[in-house]
Write a structure and sequence with these properties.
The protein is mostly helical and 668 residues long. The protein folds into two domains: 269 residues, Glycosyltransferase (Alpha/alpha barrel), CATH 1.50.10.20; 256 residues, Alpha/alpha barrel (Glycosyltransferase), CATH 1.50.10.20. The strands form three sheets. It has a three-stranded antiparallel β-sheet, with no helix packed on it. Strands 1-7 form a two-stranded antiparallel ribbon. A hairpin with a 2-residue loop joins strand 3 and strand 4. The relative contact order is 0.12.
Length: 668
């Protein structure tokens, strides 16, 4: 299965090789073949790939709370969720938000609440240790606003402990500096249902009396998160003052425009529940919308509520005597990455697996309206992350899908090219004023919003980032766009400005500087800019953090301490990213690239996969991290295949070229 015949590749001129190199080349070819076959075996019959998306125990904890408020806390279901939570408790009594990390306050508070609801006595040893850890980490008074919001829903704490999330925000016009669409897409999905809940303040009760007195560090300072800093001028203090005023007005019998604003919030939510498998198709938005529907008078068995409950239930994974939750599903993302990896591994452009995946992707292109149109004027044509999330196609997925599609020898060529044209048009329309790209929105960078009291999820905005910008530049470069094109030149200026002093780039959606640096190097290669000084500096930085065994690893701690960038336990996905970056900047002759490739070959399992325990995906930096279970297969396969192809001078099919003038000439 390993030779080039029938795989869509052409061998270059073979040079005499030392015996050691020949042996490694044979092992490398075997690794690529094994990885390719294993990845092919994971394809679903409909044509897509979708592996587990793992997160921390806050999901299971919130879910137990949700089931109790919903009145659907079946004992066996709760028991299995609680089993999963208990097994993730740390020796010090707390729970963390990433594998190997320290105890984190919000995760620990949520776990304690969930286990109490599951029937664990407050004086049980593991619960006492948990409460002690909560107090040591700052107490309930230091939890984030969303953790306190849930407790207020059940009457466990007062609404004065929760930031005011008033529906009046719905009425602020687009020209006003602060309005709904200046917040990130995921913030909108999370917060709009909370506006409804804040306004209605439902008096829900849990089936047990939940006493949380043992969780306060200092009961006399329960409002510590609302304490002023008394700066001469501080946006935070200003927003806290507004928060206090809004809470005072809650006691008035008449609230100006409240009903109109509440109606606008409810209408927005109901509209966004359509054309999507859950609000925003992400866990917090989905759960919050179910709470909001119930507060609006929709019973759990109402058809609309029942549909939304079913979407959330579908995120459960039952295994043995445990149940765990995914924050969402990633079929589009998994599929396009798998396709690009298989194409690099030499799969023929007309292979049935690629044709079936292409059929599926073409059907998933979003051709309807979405929130992105509030600031971008181009026609629709992007792709989303999940099975269906039509309001929120995203730039990263769209660029990767286009890279996957361009090499496929699809029978209906006109349909394929039409779809790719629409996708490219949409990508270009989403470029920000600074030359970069964000994920879901255009020019979403109103930094003052990060000082609001409910911005503590650390993802209030969706500004330009190096990793997403690099993905678009790579995509356009592979489609033939020259570096002289104004779109590419603006993006290049952004990337040059965004590079850190030591040569690395920050990774917003993957951990972290290894991910960001690899992506930018790949983009520079695709646009003929890999010889620039900024590429050489990035390659030097990658070499500086390579481990003696050739591997790479970076902990999520680097988000909190940039001094630890590029440091952490080895992972296959991060080693693959670094290898991809080194190949882009220096080629297969680079000794660091050779050592990284050797490590990946050595660590491959007999079935063609790799093991990876640590999270290398990022949801919200410093707050929420992800483990993409397909990363450990797709990216090492791609990196090794690319190393093999460059080492042997193999040339893959170039695929579709779509120059900028063709967009205008041919239309979409």
């Amino acid at each position: 299965m390993g030779d080039a015949v029938g795989l869509g590749i052409q061998p270059g001129l073979e040079q005499p090789q030392p015996r050691e190199d020949r042996e490694f080349a044979a092992r490398l070819q075997r690794a690529v073949s094994l990885g390719r076959d294993h990845l092919l075996s994971l394809q679903e019959t409909q044509g897509y790939w979708c592996a587990e998306l793992e997160a921390d125990t806050t999901l299971e904890s919130d879910y137990i709370f949700y089931l109790h408020l919903l009145g659907r806390a079946e004992p066996d279901r709760v028991r299995k969720l609680a089993n999963y939570i208990r097994r993730r408790q740390l020796p010090d009594g707390g729970w963390n938000i990433y594998i190997g990390g320290p105890a984190e306050l919000n995760a620990t508070v949520k776990a304690w609440v969930a286990l109490r609801l599951a029937g664990d006595p407050a004086d049980a040893p593991h619960m006492v240790r948990a409460a002690e850890r909560v107090r040591a980490l700052g107490g309930l008074e230091r939890t984030n606003s969303f953790a306190r919001f849930y407790l207020a829903l059940a009457g466990v704490i007062g609404w004065d402990m929760v930031p005011a999330i008033v529906p009046g925000l719905m009425l602020l016009p687009s020209w006003f500096p602060i309005n709904l669409y200046e917040a990130s897409s995921w913030t909108r999905a999370i917060v709009v249902p909370l506006m409804i809940l804040w306004a209605r303040k439902p008096a829900w009760k849990l089936p047990i009396e939940l006493e949380v007195e043992c969780l306060w560090q200092d009961p006399s300072r329960r409002h510590a998160e609302f304490a002023w800093r008394w700066n001469i001028f501080s946006w935070r203090d200003l927003f806290l003052a507004v928060d206090g005023i809004l809470k005072c007005t809650e006691g008035l019998p008449w609230k100006m425009l409240r009903e109109k604003a509440l109606a606008a919030a409810e209408s927005w939510m109901l509209e966004h529940l359509e054309r999507s498998e859950g609000l925003g198709a992400i866990y917090p938005g989905m759960m919050n919308s179910i709470f909001a529907l119930i507060a609006m008078g929709h019973a759990p068995d109402d058809p609309l509520t029942a549909r939304e409950i079913a979407y959330l239930t579908a995120l459960e994974i039952e295994e043995g005597d445990t149940i765990r939750l995914q924050p969402c599903v990633s079929p589009l993302w998994d599929t396009c990455i798998a396709m690009v990896s298989l194409e690099e591994a030499g799969l023929a452009p007309d292979h049935p697996a690629l044709l079936k995946a292409t059929d599926w992707l073409l059907e998933k292109q979003v051709l309807g309206p979405g929130d992105w149109q509030k600031k971008a004027s181009g026609p629709p044509g992007g792709w989303a992350f999940e099975f269906r999330n039509d309001w929120y196609p995203d730039v990263d997925d769209t660029a990767f899908v286009l890279m996957a599609l361009r090499r496929v020898a699809y029978p209906d060529r006109a349909r394929l090219e039409h779809s790719i044209r629409r996708g490219v048009r949409w990508l270009v329309s989403m470029q920000n004023r600074d030359g970069g790209w964000g994920a879901f929105d255009k020019d979403n960078n109103r930094h003052v919003l990060t000082q609001t009291p409910f911005a503590d999820h650390n993802a209030m905005l969706d500004p330009s980032t190096a990793d997403v910008t690099a993905r678009v530049v790579e995509c356009l470069g592979l489609l033939g766009w020259p570096e002289s094109n104004p779109v590419i030149r603006r993006a290049y200026r952004f990337l040059r400005h965004d590079q850190t002093e030591d040569g690395a780039w920050y990774g917003r959606w993957g951990v972290n500087y290894i991910y960001g640096s690899s992506g930018v190097l790949r983009a520079l290669e695709a646009t003929g800019l890999a010889g620039k000084d900024l590429a050489r500096r990035a390659a030097d930085w990658l070499r500086s953090v390579q481990k003696p065994d050739g591997s790479f690893g970076e902990s999520v701690v680097s988000y909190d301490d940039p001094g630890l960038k590029g440091q952490g336990e080895t992972t296959p996905s991060q080693t693959a990213w670094a290898l991809i970056g080194l190949l882009a900047a220096a080629g297969p002759g680079d000794p660091a690239a050779r050592r990284a490739a050797e490590h990946l070959v050595e660590m491959q399992k007999p079935d063609g996969s790799w093991d990876e325990a640590h999270f290398t995906g990022t949801g919200f930096p410093s707050v929420f991290y992800l483990g993409y279970h397909l990363y450990r297969i797709s990216f090492p396969l791609y990196a090794l295949a690319r190393y093999r192809n460059q080492m042997e001078g193999r040339e893959l099919s170039e695929g579709l070229r779509l120059l900028p003038d063709q967009l205008t000439r041919n239309g979409a």
